[in-house]
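Aim 2, interim progress. The first record below pairs a target sequence with its structure tokens.
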Amino acid sequence: MKKKVLVLGCTGSIGTSTLDIIRAFPGRFEVCGLSAHTNQKKLNGLAAEFGCTNTALTADAVSADKTANTARNLSAAALSNEKIAQLIEKSKADIAVNGIAGAAGLMPSVLCLENGIDLALANKETIVMAAPLIRALAEKKGRKIIPVDSEHSALFALIERFGKERVNSLILTASGGPFRTTAREKLKDVKPEDALKHPTWSMGQKISIDSATLANKGLEVIEACRLFDMEPEKVKVTVHPQSLVHSLIETVDGDLYAQISEPDMKRPIISALTYPDMIENNLKKLDLFSALGNPDGNAEGVTMSFYPARFDDFPLLGAAYEAQKKGGSYTIAYNAANESAVSMFLQKKIGFTQIADIVSEVLEKDRTQEPRTFNDVFAIDEQVRREAEICGQRLIRGNI
């Protein structure tokens, strides 16, 4: 029987890779639902290709009926979630791939689990913002959360093979982003178009900026701590420019074990879709013995190098560790402030290094409140975004 797959964010990089996998295995998977944010034309084309009648365009939720929306006093986010809820209910999926970017992906994750659907999770904000609540919901519904980030997919697989009791620490790899070797004093002059040029991965704008500031790795540190119940001190980051090692574990006897493959997001997606099975596929394999294009045919092998992360030059990485250590609502604040600041940077309202300034100021406030419900999470998120906007306005005026 085919596994029915719901693809949330089907026009983004995760969604596109997911659909490529489904094309490659038509006898194993079928598309039962598709959502996109703004690209109606592409959504319609994909729906026609896969014979999928269940679709949702979330950005159109407000503009479709302004009079009705005003009367019901619903926000754009609430209307988007309403459309996602209707899509999830109609799709009757076995598994959902959540490739929606940012905090907007949290409620779709909640809705999938509430409807008894396993979650292949590429939206790290779901865990960063609401890990205790989302994990409790998954347990209550008897559903699985399978990470799709390449790093966490690797850790998930390694921990499954060795057993949690044998793992001493986790090591996340980072490409270092486009400014891995850029001098600290030059970072303040970085422009959005420079920060969007990731050396390894093709991603959306927000995650590309996060990779440039190392905020993305900070979010992944928080996610690893919360997914695998590890203290921050036991989650480490190493810069690995080749992006071939996707994560490592250190076992209790001091040995390191790595997951190594070509950098291709289809790998963690196919692992999630087929879990707990492992299937043959046509994805490019890493050839350790290839000549790598050397014209005389002499094998050059494959080089893998590792460097310490530059915590002082990219302070958002360290800020993530502090947010995780403090608990409460600090990780919600970290994510919300960063999303707001990145938006301002992309609009060229603030400088590259001022993203970290905004996050730092927001995290100075007391965030010890522990959210008890998902509504608490959203309320805290909204409040922090207002604070970040005020901080950004002061930066723009040159007052701080």
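The second target in this work package is listed in the same format:
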Amino acid sequence: MKSIGCIGCGNMGGGVLKGLVAHEQFELFGHDHTRAKVESIGPEGRVAWMESPLELARRCDVIILAVKPYQMEAMLEEIRPALDSSKVVVSLAAAFSQARLKKGVEGRCPVVRCMPNLPVIVGRGVFALCFDDEALDDPRRKELLALFQLMGMALALPEAQFPAFSSLVGCGPAFVLLFMEGLLNAGITMGLKAPVSRELIAAMVEGTARLALESGESFADLRVRVCSPSGTTIRGVNHMERCAVPGHVTDAVLEALKRDREMAASD
């Protein structure tokens, strides 16, 4: 697995290639309607521009498809002549099933569903990979998992759990950013300049996430450690509890899941 190409180099596809630029063991290739998107990824010449999806598929061992779901069937048909058992097609498209991927490649090569989230564009993505394809041997599964772990956190999930992953981790950055907006408004109200508040909040959220990952303690236990008796934090936490903030967050994730199922049913 030394040559990796991505068709579609927007936020997700471009983010994946950008995350791999520093790893010199990989040859990187890209194709996009806008050639400048490919040429802007990494140092000049690090990601080679391919004139067509078919040309990229012929050149690469791993072919990442970062196109819209409605474009996927036509894209699979276009690259199909270049596919064989030595290659792997990885789809980043939401709501495009493993079964449809297998049908699209006509059994010529293994297929993998991968779901990233937006922080991939800064090398801190969280990826779910579905390896529900008997054509993909165990060594290549491990290689693919290790590949995406270079760009953040990656784990294997059965396809049945993808809607939950999407609702929680795919949508999650938007929910966190909305909370951060509320903190920003509070900072400005208290007299802090917006750029200062923004920087402080982003650093605080990053540090808190790192603390949670490295400590192994539950979120609740860590929260209690911030809440001194009769202090300021517990006053604010009590207000959030009265407003049912945790419940509303849970409901937001479940609403996202409901919409995911609606979209899948109408597909």
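The CA atoms of residues 164 and 257 lie 6 Å apart. This observation will shape the mutagenesis plan for the next reporting period.
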